[in-house]
Amino acid sequence: MNEETTDKNQFVDELLQLKKESYENISLVDYQHLRKIIWINRIFLLLGFSTAWIIPNPISMLFISFALTNMWCIVAHHVCHGGYNRIKGIPKKYHSQRFATGWSRFLHWPDWVYPAAWKHEHNVLHHLNTNESLDPDQISYRQKSSKLSQNNWLSRILSMLSWGLWVSLWKALYYAPNTIKAMNEKKNYSHIKNYVLYRREIILRCYLPYIVCHFIILPLLFFPLGWYAVLFVLLNRIGAEVITNWHTFLLIVPSHHGEDISLHNQHFNDRSEFYLMQIASTSNYHTGGFWRDYFSGYLNYQIEHHLFPDLPASQYVRLQPKIKRLCQRHGINYIQESIFKRIIKLYDVTQGKKRLKRGHLLLEGGCDEHQPL
């Protein structure tokens, strides 16, 4: 951000006007867009499992993984933020307080992640503390030094293999336990009680439901076609699991990592600083075109989403060019690059080759209370 050319108050006033216009534009058209995404996910599931029983094959794995990815990245993500709460007349199951609760979880969002824990970890901790020390999704604060010896090819290969294995299982190894941990810490349990509940809840709320649903019950539905059909469905489902882990990781994590992204040592003081810190902490991928947006999980609009997280996914398409022009007019750095460039920048950070910037937005004092805006 160029402080000399930026009138913070004027920028925020114009930003809030764009926010007001977006809220006023929310309508049934946005709900119809959501329903379109849901039906595409269902069709992909049908296409994937209709061939999964025949033989293990990459086509089945890809179709299944695409559906799983966007059940989370598009549908659950925006519904849980309350993006559709303002639309009158839509089914209550698409309101943030009702979505994926109880048994409906296995229909609407059958994921490793427990929905109630996700809402606290993501909607509160991540969005209100983006790239601060309290951000549970900022790996730079948590990873150990992993700078590689440029002369040790074996270390580089082992590091790449280790990183690849972790990404292949990242929802089970990272997201599911982290969200449960955040939910338990919110309840202020004692250390011992918290540890016991953490172990029990991650098994009962994350691992057991997902494994039983996806890797036992689902393959057994194909038993009338024979044991080979059951085995092939299981293998295709395992392949889809690896693909969706890579897909979600490479969509979600790069947008907040890279040497051009800022870490913050202090919390924002007011709404203006919140908006500026969100822009400095986030990057977009290339946008435009329904299918590019779909396969990007609408995470190619991360800047707009972090500014106004409770908008429907479809609203970001119209809002993004306006936000970009506004930032450029006020001399504020708006980062938008190819997802492949962002992935390379993420990898450099994870391997210790590069670091995120610190103190990009200097704040005086900070704020003790992390309150919603």
From TrEMBL:
Locations listed in the record: Membrane
Protein topology in the membrane: Multi-pass membrane protein
Organism, as annotated: Shewanella surugensis
Similarity comment: Belongs to the fatty acid desaturase type 1 family.
Keyword Membrane among UniProt keywords: yes
NAD is among the record's keywords: no
Organism lineage: Bacteria, Pseudomonadati, Pseudomonadota, Gammaproteobacteria, Alteromonadales
Domain of life: Bacteria
Pfam families cross-referenced by the UniProt entry: FA_desaturase
Annotated keywords: Heme, Iron, Lipid metabolism, Membrane, Metal-binding, Oxidoreductase, Transmembrane, Transmembrane helix
Entry EC number(s): 1.14.19.-
Domain Fatty acid desaturase: 62-336
Protein name, per record: Fatty acid desaturase
Major location (coarse): membrane
Listed transmembrane segments: 37-55, 61-84, 207-235
Single Gene Ontology MF annotation: oxidoreductase activity
Alphabetical list of PANTHER family matching this protein: DELTA 8-(E)-SPHINGOLIPID DESATURASE, FATTY ACID DESATURASE 2
Pathway note: Lipid metabolism
Family annotation (InterPro entries): FA_desaturase_dom, Fatty_acid_desaturase
